[in-house]
Amino acid sequence: MTTTFFLVRHAAHDRVGTVLCGRMPGVHLGARGKAQTERLAERFARANVACILSSPLERAVETAEPIAARLGLPFDTCSALAEIDFGRWSGMSFETLAGDPHWTSWNTSRSTNRPPEGETMLETQARIVGIMEDLRRRYAGQSIILVSHSDVIKAALLYHLGLPIDAYARLDVEPASISTLAVGDWGAKIMRLNEVVA
């Protein structure tokens, strides 16, 4: 049996591209992001979905809510879908981080580096793949929406593609995008990558 995962990156907030928000609280969708969630809800309006789970961070929850409302389904938050714990880097501007040699090392080799007081991308990959395996068994033959974050989604996709974690920069996962993944005992197949609903 095949389980289909719709991996949805949260919609845009006003700090995208300027601040490494990580797990900092109080990051809400901006006007652009709210418009994106309406398009996502419309995209899924006729989808046959059994379950919706979201990262507990506000920007992800605010993305999941309109989708769940449109489908008439409840949704739950799941800590396994949360953003990477960037530790002391959380809340720092990318401009400031650019001067940090440890930041350069992290982006050169995610497989061998850890954010200060944070988690590795391999640890992130283990938690997202773990919850997907649990859900795959629970919802065999059905479809699931997971609302998460760019690097978390990349970690899941890289695992199922059989690619190393350091290939993360080869994938684009834009705000409010959908990457569709079919997973079964036979393996996995990427059906769509970084689908952005216009």
From TrEMBL:
SMART domains: PGAM (SM00855). Pfam families: His_Phos_1. InterPro entries: His_Pase_superF_clade-1, His_PPase_superfam, PGM_Phosphatase. Transmembrane segments: none annotated. This is Histidine phosphatase family protein. It comes from Microvirga arsenatis.
